[in-house]
Amino acid sequence: MAITLKDVALRAGVSRSAVSRTFTEGASVSDATRKKVRKAASELGYRPNALASSLTTGRTKLIGLVSDNFRNPIFLEVFDLFTRGLQERGLRPLLVNLSEQKDPGQSLQMLQTYSVDAVIVASSTLPPSFAEAFRDAGVPVVNSFGRHTTSPNVHVVGIDNVECGRMAARSLIDHGYRKLAFLGGPKEATSTQDRLAGFLEIVRATSGVSQTHSFAAQYSFEAGFAEMQNCITNGPAEAYFCGDDVLSIGALSAAQAAGLTVPDQLGIIGLNDMEMAGWTNIALTTIHQPIRQIITSSIELVTAMLNDPTRYPEARLFPCHVVERGTLRPI
Amino acid sequence: MAITLKDVALRAGVSRSAVSRTFTEGASVSDATRKKVRKAASELGYRPNALASSLTTGRTKLIGLVSDNFRNPIFLEVFDLFTRGLQERGLRPLLVNLSEQKDPGQSLQMLQTYSVDAVIVASSTLPPSFAEAFRDAGVPVVNSFGRHTTSPNVHVVGIDNVECGRMAARSLIDHGYRKLAFLGGPKEATSTQDRLAGFLEIVRATSGVSQTHSFAAQYSFEAGFAEMQNCITNGPAEAYFCGDDVLSIGALSAAQAAGLTVPDQLGIIGLNDMEMAGWTNIALTTIHQPIRQIITSSIELVTAMLNDPTRYPEARLFPCHVVERGTLRPI
DNA sequence: CAACGTATTGCAACCGGTTGCAGTGTGTTC
DNA sequence: GAACACACTGCAACCGGTTGCAATACGTTG
Question: Is A291 exposed, middle or buried (0-12, 13-18, 19+ CB in 10 A)?
């Protein structure tokens, strides 16, 4: 069995309280006893039990990290940054993979069972109601990469997807394309709808420019490939704004397979600027999403909520910008 | 405050024990009380506190999942499969990102503090001593993707890296290349050393075949790109066995950038068969590592150790095979 | 030297469950 | 109808810590 408070207390010749206090910041203990306790503890190899202490303090330092897409390469960066950021602050990520179960009920219940201090919902495809279910249950929650609404019910950190849609349309037009298309992510995702709205806004406001749009079943290479094949058989547009980078690469691949040259016969612009978009044999022109800032900010919000769980919900939006690489022809 | 046992007991008009027992499998409770308790519990929205119960049962169902490379795309699949597999068995992954801290001490201490039931070390680059530190501390551990030694001190699930080295060399030779090279991962990683050993074994046993070898600083696109540039300036070999797929893609990219045509002027074979190796605009010939089986098996071992923590350590190896795509010229 | 303020300390109750044990009630058996 | 086995049930102690409170110790002050 593991070493407990009692063992250390016995060895140091003090009470259990004294031991507990030497290990809690700011408690009243004399240097003499603190020293005795430290010595006994290290001799025995004592490790305080965080779970036991959470019982009285009400804090576990466990943060639920839930996501619904473990196959999109963008999540490599997301997980890396989240885990590091949380670790730096002494918080522990408890991972939840939503791949099948899109209903919040089950994960909510599980995360409550483990008394997580807060939950981060990292997804651009889950409906706002998902994160809200956590809030309704009294669990502090941040929705990273979520939709910005005018009256958010939960903290949201992300980008302005409507503006991204505009940005993409403008960029395609600036590069001389006229027959545009939006090859979106899942139709029901709010991010998809917002991007489409922005895209349409610019297209409709620009004379001589037309558009079509369609949606991929999910954010994956295969879905992008398949949907681009569809588009090609229906008569391809000149340039595509794809829902994200992994979709773009699938689409790119389908275009090449069909013998279309990129960027001359067909232009593509993605969204995310994930690491491999910059790989020289991919060289995808894309809209950069400031992942690092979004995650840093999300973690800031989480820690802020730890101190004030009822903190008034806010939306934090970060600007995006186009990164020119090789999939749009030169202006 | 959350609903506790006591609240439910009060409402149902029974003792706390009765409530506790209705929520534990196989405990002795009559149907009548069970029903009363269930009713009261659901009316109040009671959620048992897993952490509190862990105090007496000694089980948290928390599994530490530690890894040192969150940037290699292969880990997308790894995390997806691990989290799903663990969830299916009612276990919870507590993620540890080792990106900076390669010393087991700190993560060990943290995971002990959270009383994890077991730890999975998912890495082909950490030394065996890393996983052993957990075992020495009495924490059940499985080293996934670790090195198979003749007398393992901890459970290891992975592949035979020496055999992979042989397989790669044979494959390159079969495809008609004669001037071979190994562009390995980190030099100090046991997997790198083993793969090199197998590679050399075949090269030396085959007349008319020569080899050189060098190492990338880490498993990343950039490192592969940089090391291939080095190789090219030093006079490139005809074909390369790269330490893994992401390295291969970096190398591929550098070769193309230098104007070398693949697979004619330069052949490349990778290792892992990660998802994007199959993307049609990459089409990497590579050695398939059966990730799914390795992870399933690792989880099996973990659950077995939950019941028998002193289970005799074993090594489980899974066979690999070459997946022919476009980066070796036809035989 | 007595009175007093402050810093330490230990006691004991509590956090939310679990579980050994003894007591109760029911149904069986003869 | 008495003896007995067995299924339930609640009590109380315990898991490993934390913390309010009262007791003690100590150095100061007048």
Answer: buried
Among the partner residues B80, B96, B249, nearest to A71 by beta-carbon distance: B80
Q: For residue B242, count other CB atoms closer than 10 A to its CB.
A: 32
First-to-last C-alpha distance (Å) of chain A = 70
**DSSP annotation of B289:** P
For residue A87, which residues of chain B lie inside 8 Å, CB to CB? 96-97
* B70 to A87: CB separation less than 8 angstroms, yes or no: no
- Please give the C-alpha separations between residue B204 and each of A57, A255, B35, B168, B209, in angstroms, as whole numbers: 65, 44, 74, 14, 8
**B155-184 pLDDT tens trace:** 999 999 999 999 999 999 999 999 999 999
Give the pLDDT mean for B227-237.
Answer: 95
Cβ neighbours of A60 in B, within 8 Å: 51
Mean pLDDT check: name the lowest of A28-42, A169-183, A283-297.
A28-42
Those residues whose beta carbons lie under 7 A from strand D are A 1-2, 4-6, 16-17, 20-21, 23-24, 46-49, 52-53, 55-57; B 14-18, 21, 28-34, 52, 55-56
Taken in order of first residue, the domains within chain A and their CATH numbers are 5-48 (1.10.260.40), 62-159+291-318 (3.40.50.2300), 161-289 (3.40.50.2300)
- Long-range contact list for A177-180, CB < 8 A, 24+ apart? A177/A238, A177/A239, A177/A267, A177/A328, A178/A208, A178/A209, A178/A210, A178/A238, A179/A209, A179/A210, A179/A211, A179/A237, A179/A238, A179/A239, A180/A209, A180/A210, A180/A211, A180/A212, A180/A237, A180/A238, A180/A239, A180/A240, A180/A241
As a whole number of angstroms, the distance between CA A89 and CA A23 comes to 18
Window A:126-145, CB contacts with B under 8 Å? none
Nearest CA-CA partner of B215 in B241, B187, B253, B255: B187
- Given an 8 Å threshold on Cβ–Cβ distance, is B276 in contact with A221? yes
To which residue do tokens 């990660």 refer?
Answer: B274
Q: Do A80 and B73 touch (CB under 8 A)?
A: no
Given A47, A83, A250, which is nearest B95 (Cβ)? Answer: A83
Token output for A232: 């090609």
Instruction: For residue range A106-129, list pLDDT tens digits in order.
Output: 999 999 999 999 999 999 999 889
Does the beta-carbon distance from A279 to B109 stay under 8 Å?
Answer: no
